[in-house]
Amino acid sequence: MSLPSQLLQTLWPFRLEKRPEPSSTMRLASPLIAATAMALTGLIVFLILGKDPVTAFQVFFLKPLSTTYDLGELALKATPLMLCALGLALGFRANVWNIGAEGQLTLGAIAGSGIALFWGEALGSFALPVMMIAGALGGMAWAAIPAFLRTRFHTNEILVSLMLVYIAQQLLGYLVHGPWRDPDGNNFPQSKVFVENAILPMLVEGTRVTAAFIVALLLAVASWVFSTKTFAGYRMLVAGLAPQAAAYAGFSERRNIWLALLIGGGMAGLAGISEVAGPIGLLQPVVSPGYGFAAIIVAFVGRLHPFGIVLASLLMSLLYLGGEAAQIDLQLPSSITGLFQGSLLFYLLAADLFITFRLRRIRRESRAVAGVAS
Amino acid sequence: MTTDAALPPRLQLRGITKRYPAVLANDHIDLTVGVGEIHALLGENGAGKSTLMKIVYGVTRPDEGIIVWEGKAVSIASPAEARRLGIGMVFQHFSLFETLTVAENIALAMDEKIKPALLAPRIREVSEKYGLPVDPNRLTHSMSVGERQRVEIVRCLLQSPRLLIMDEPTSVLTPQSVLKLFETLRRLASEGVSILYISHKLDEIRALCDTATVLRGGRLSGTAVPRDESNASLARLMVGSDLTACQLQPREPGEIELELTNLSLTTRDPFGTRLQDLNLRVRGGEIVGIAGVSGNGQKELLAALSGETLVGEINRSHAGMIRLCGQPAGLLNPAQRRGLGLGFVPEERLGRGAVPAMTLAENALLTGASGGSSTGMLRYGMVQQKAARAFAKATIEQFKVKCGGESSIASSLSGGNLQKFIVGRETRLKPKVMVVAQPTWGVDVGAALLIRQALIDLRDQGVALLVISEELDELFMICDRIAVINQGRLSPTMPSAELTIEQIGVLMSATSMAGHADETVTGEPVDVAA
Amino acid sequence: MNFEHLIPIFVSTVVAATPLIYAALGELVTERAGVLNLGVEGMMLVGAVAAFAAGIATGSLVLAFLAGMLAATAVSLLFAFLTLSLQTNQVATGLALTLFGVGLSAFIGRGYSGMPIERVPRLDIPGISDLPVIGPLLLNYDALVYLSIALYFALSWFLNHSRAGLRLRATGESPTVAHAIGEPVIVIRYLAVMFGGAMSGIAGAYLSTALTPMWVEGMSAGRGWIALALVVFATWKPLRVMLGAYLFGGVTVMQLYAQGFGVDVPSEFLSMLPYAATIVVLVIICRDPKTILLNQPASLGKSFHPDA
Fold it and tell me: Which domain holds residue C199?
């Protein structure tokens, strides 16, 4: 055996061994293990930054849950995460790697805002439904680009959907700096404030949570029905688990890619318009603090399962709120949120391994054998 | 054979044991190979032959047991160490890198650091000495399987091995090439090289080997001198009971159900084989077999039959090159072809024939939902779980699939049981035409028997069957007629009762010389003007 | 427009291409070993912030680059451990690495925004750098530019003519076969991932100390992803990585000069150019699936478990 591999074995004297059957306990336990590991990492980071870990912990994880208003904020921030993650998860399960939800969200915001800005008043009470549809279509149109390029030119959807994020952001920047800028807005790069009937109604008095939260929950149920009860959902599942089996059964690869990207794009677009027609109320250069990317983490932490995603989006929302609270109360940088999000996904991936594998210590059998023989 | 009593045996294994999570692959195996001896390691699929050889070659390490090499106990921690001792191995699934040249491939496995370019003369020298022509500068992916095996053997010989392990070497060769290979092996043995020859083919072992060690279910079931044994007595050692052969009752075939007319197809895969002018008719109530060395177009033909590759996308009139139940089917996708009455058992069970991570009930849906006969598994686009479970359950019972019920995960089944499930699923969908690839490859004898009988039963019910297999014995056993595929071309079929193995061997290397002994190989037949 | 105007464009193109070269050549080595690391963007950012912090703390640019390399290698080890020792999905883990890198770099860099740092100096060779045309065109860059070209030559030789390179390629071609003939597949892949990490680190360090000598959150602005696309565009060949990088450097620079030349297009559309160009280039190269099939390392992105 070569020296490096010997060294590796000394440092890591374990061997992975496949379990006879995947462990269903670990499947549920691993997000909890990951969340615990992330919390521990948080404690260490708080210590390093010289903050009292107990106080910091309280501010970060508990304070955002203390009042009705706070709970409303939790639901409010969970909404776009949930919407994006539900769509992405359907794609990931079908082996379609749309990572451009952030761009599709932006396009959804642009398309929906277009309706609000130009026909908001004229449409009256139809304004919101039309905006929602336009938002979903905008997201779909943006996702249709990687779908078309992948099915027609075999172009990798990961890279294309990601490049389109940057393009979408530039497009949004152009609109709010240029043609859609509010002429009476003191040259601020933002659109006019949407008219009253183009703003999502509040759900609970005294909070900012909107009807979009209910829409997201309903879509979670719909997504569950789709993936467990319908043949279309089954086909996508097979395509993800065993692409050759899908080909053998005659499930079209094209349809799978299109469906996965259109659903993902549509949901992200919905998230985008819900943001601008909800808490923001107008179009501005930045409509999302990276919800589309954080949704990738939400999808995985939620086990790619609709109900898991509902829980995971609430957890991720808590991380955003905790970051804000920590910034105000403890003068901690808000970027700590990104650190937590990233490490959460890492821990989850590591813990997930033990669903299908278990660790066994390597026994130095060959050496023992030689010893016996001589 | 020059076994010298004074010399210690070249290799001795004592009590070798290897456990995997689900199985005991080797249970206290003893084995002794003398100097210059050709020693057979015999056993059916899953008996533990390959594991044992991987242990000897240092790829896998045993949990217990002692390896004694030329009288000294050794521990073989890696293939490099095995090679240093003088052990060479020719793998069943070749250990060559497709995109590297012959010389690069050989350089990688040499323990002395030598540049591929400097190796070339030595490669030529060895290949000439043993009659194994190879071109050092060719890229591996352009070579036939027979040529690749030569590269593997030359690679071993360059290190002057004292023990050569051959893992199922003839499964990829034509009958003629097998004879050539045997000549080479005998010559090596006469020079004092010991050979461990792994096979499940009894005739070959009786023709070639001095002694045989037989494994069954991971255990040593006996040793024998093959020349003194009959096929039947060796088979008893291997299987534990007498082999019962399947019987075909003469039967008048019915209508043409599957018809290929001048089927030609170029391939998208750069390493694929082009199909050229295939003609074939399969009638209801008969089994037609296609023999051939793998890599001669079987994969492409199967994809064209199943609908995974469409025929006639560019020129719609070509859609009729494939007719299913009287209808042109070239442009139909797999689900549509199923609708016409096609059943299909692919070569890869896990990952193509079944979704590994899904339950058997969910796997019943895979083809059951679009199957020809109404199975009730689908209603208004909604999956009917109950019907799928019932279907899977009935399949498990009818085909004696050993598993924990219809909720078992497909990947937890043994190869034989999964194959029984897939054959059962396709059978229960009541096909009119059934295409089966490698029906019993890697399957234990009991399952093989059941699967073959199931295919014969289908034939007797009037189904048209096409079986593509590399196992000639199997084709002779169950087929009414046999054709041979070679370099993307198909021979006419002949009644199997009138065919001999030698005739098939001639057909396998007829249009080309893809076998073991050829001097030149052309990738494609070229029109040559005189 | 005369020749004098073209010199600065040429020079900025070369400079803009340099971080892409490091990142893409590093990823190329990783991918040739069969590992797809989508974390380039994250590793670049970590490299950029580490180099900036070290530069501020020590005042030494050499130490800054070393710090960038080490930091990015460290996070690449995280990826390697997860994908190679724990067999996690490479795509998901790579995405995780990028998200983690974005978060980590923003966190570390919180105090450094707006700080100035000394720019990596141009090599000034007395007498030679002053030569007309040739001087400003070819002999007026910082050391990292020349090193990137040296890296290209070294890598080409390594991949095509060295035994170690042959082993690396073989591992990427078929880890199963490599394992069967006794190659330490996992070790080789670890090394390949770490090399990719180190190169991304240099690329990141170059961003924060040479290209725009400052730290800005998310300053790589998709360059890591463009580097990934470059490797596909290059069909896994170093020479084409170089060509592609200079092409993209050119596109990036064009947006800066276009307005100067009176092109009347909103700046946002010019800023889209590199990303749009990436998509176009991917389409061109992937159009024929055979191009990818023939050149892509056969085991790219697939987990390998020696005993399974």
Answer: 3-295
